[in-house]
Input
Amino acid sequence: MGEQSGAQKGGLTLLHRAVSGPHIELLGNREAVVEGCQGILEYDDGVVRVRAGRLVVRFTGRGLKIRCMTADSLVVEGFLLGMEFMI
Amino acid sequence: MLVQFTRWFWGSVRFRIEGSAERFFNHCARCGIVLWGMQAGETPGAWIRAGQYSQLLGCARSAHCRLRVEEKRGLPFRTYWLRRRKGLVTGAVLGAVILTILSQQVWCVQAQGLESITQEELQAACREIGLVPGAWRSSVDPLQAEQQLMLRFPHVTWLTVNTQGSAVYIELSEGVEKPDMDTWKQPGNVKAAASGQIVRLEVYAGTPVVNVGDAVTADQLLISGVMEDPYGNVSLRHASGRVIASTVREFSAQIPMTETIEEPSGQIISRRSASFFDLRLPLTLTEEPGEGWEKESVRTVLRANGVELPVSWLEETWREVSVRERLLTPEEALEAARAEVERQKSALKGLTVLNGKESISQENGVLYYTLHAQCEEDIAVETEILVNSPN
Output
């Protein structure tokens, strides 16, 4: 196997993400970092629904807030009670 | 903390979203607009940097939302009222700049402990080493200034230069000159300074060669410094003592019957000027009058907390004087003559006038006054015995 170039590596990463879905990190039940999301579908104190590729991720809890948000990532904080993946 | 300060410095706006908040937030995220404090629910809204608020309008249009500003915070909104007062802002900025520059300079040089050295001499010395109002504080090296000033004034025992803010304080102590003791070590005699009759004799050292009641002439030996013991050994001493003698002295004074006096004509010119460091700003357009005017000037230095500021106010009052001659009355001339004789008497130390006889005459517009006085005075004068022979 020969060495892969940077462009090849980047393309593979994007492909990998598209195939495998979003990258979600949970900090206990207080904070969730979602990378690879395409936008908010629903935002309320009790529910945050996010589109992530072919998935829709639904966070439920109390006092949920979107602390910051960029084009492909967001941070949800609050008292998380559940996380659902809806296909 | 830094984030909060940045938001306060640039200003932030809290707005309310009427419509779908989710769509609006998505549009903002795609446009790269940074929001914080995003709230959903019945009253959705968020915070944004004040300068970026106009960029939200495109996102709101795309998301079919309407935005309502609810709150404004930060420095730009606090200072909004200053936008119409540009002069005030410019003045404040200029004031801050000037204060910053001036605080880097020396404002005053104050000296303490001056006795024989005058303020002007010290100022001239300070000026030569560059320690003047207006000099940069960074260029002032107190230790070097101390050394240079000590070299210029060798009789100063200690001197210190301290800088406190923009003021430079010089504290010094002048030494007491050592008295010349050589005279006291040399053997000497006491001679008479004037002719007279001795009234009282006080011998501190030496052998008296005159007695009370003797008449002596000027330069006559009164107390000898040559001492001889009972065995015939001779030693030299420094003779000293007081020899009070009754003497006759003559004091005279010549007073012209006319005197030149300067009288103010009543015309006064006032000139004012302000000084800032070495810069003098004339505040009146009047030129300096020439001859025949007397000047009286008052300089008022601005002070703050006991520190002289580099701002002073000079007020000059010029009075025109006319010179004329005045004829003295005989009484006035006699009074002036007596005053002159009194001055002559006071110049002779230890002189007591017992009685005197005045003689007054007037010739060619001059009053001649003579006082023949019988006095008592100390006529002792110490003289050295020259013992250093060539062999």
Notes: Chain B touches chain A at residues 21-22, 25-26, 28-30, 32, 34-36, 38-41, 44 (CB under 8 Å). The two ends of chain B are 98 Å apart (CA to CA). Chain B is about 25% helix and 45% strand.
